[in-house]
Prior knowledge:
It comes from Nocardioides luti. The chain has helices at residues 7-13, 39-51, 64-76, 91-102, 117-124, 145-153, 174-186, 224-227, 242-249, 261-273, 275-299, 326-332, 359-372, and strands at residues 26-27, 85-88, 108-112, 129-133, 158-162, 190-194, 218-221, 235-239, 304-305, 313-317, 335-336, 338-339, 350-354. By secondary structure, it is α/β, with parallel strands linked by helices. The chain starts with 6 loop residues before the first helix and ends with a helix. The mean pLDDT is 97.
Amino acid sequence: MIVDLTDDEARAALPLKWGTVEPGVVPGWVAEMDYALAPPLVDALTAAVARGTTGYPPFGDGGIGAAFAAYAGRHWSWQPPEDATAVVGDVIGGIRLAIETLCPPGPVVVPLPCYPPFRDIVALTGRELVTVEVDPDAEDAALDLGAVEDAFRAGARTLLLCNPHNPLGRVASRTELADLAALAERYDARVVADEIHGPLVLPGATFTPYLSVDPRGILVTSPSKTFNTAGLHTAHVTALDPADQARLRGVPLPQNHAYSPLGMLAARVAWTDCDAWNAALVARLDDQRRLLTRLLADRFPAARMRPLQATYLAWLDLRAYAVDDPAAAALAHGVRLSPGGDYHQGLTGHVRMNVATSPERLGLMVDRLAAALG
Ligand SMILES: Cc1ncc(COP(=O)(O)O)c(C=O)c1O
């Protein structure tokens, strides 16, 4: 059910991921997948384009709240009310809207490493950024709740949570999330949970939607990472308090208008008609994870990979090979990976590798990285 794109097809489908590398270079950087779209999406989008559905999006959520609630109920045994969701242009824009509209004034806590736009979005809201670091040598990359409490005590009132985590590939436990929720409540802080990787939890891990343990939390998500639809620009924000929902919907149009009718259609179809494809994708990513683990053990046993519990983004600690910038070295050998320092400034010797490709390309990436590390 998961169809690998050829290099030419991938170059046509993914202009950023493939269009920014020289021919012959394997792109294992930005979080997009080298797989054909799920057939229900192709059918729905093709028919919509044939109908000329390229006008402005409608007011309202176009049924996305109900479709997402049903998906969450089927997959995670948790279901927000159907009318708790507002559509936004993308997850990062949704996080910005959530901070500006729903979060009390005060600094924003961002755990590191983080998806780099988290830092930029905090700056754009004019709020102070407070970082809390995961020690790269820690056995478990759990959130440091002691450091989070220090930040709340010092005045921070918002925390950006990424669960499942990009780039660590980690899934937080229910207990850990409940402890965070208790801390946020004690300090009257809000947690904005980016759960874009929620449908990409791999066998062996269990995903807990943050709002299922914290009704004051704010969820921002999108089907775009799971279904490769980032360019359609549609995501959504869910808040359980009707007053919060009213605030989200009440913003002036220019503050939230960057979503598309094709993206709204894709979101509805993805959350409704693509469960079988989603399951096949998770099975394929599980195979890729197993293959990468084996290749790493064979080719560079001193590499340390964080357990990949979710996402298709493997976090590799290559410090044992004493190459400060392994992504730059890898590019010189024909594979583009994401430098660890992009996610945790000043961190050397790490890369993020996107494994959502064919087994052959994954093998090439590892071969070339091994050559780069000498
Ligand atoms: C954790 C996380 N949030 C957000 C995004 C981007 O989402 P969007 O393009 O909808 O802003 C990504 C993309 O990789 C991501 O990994």
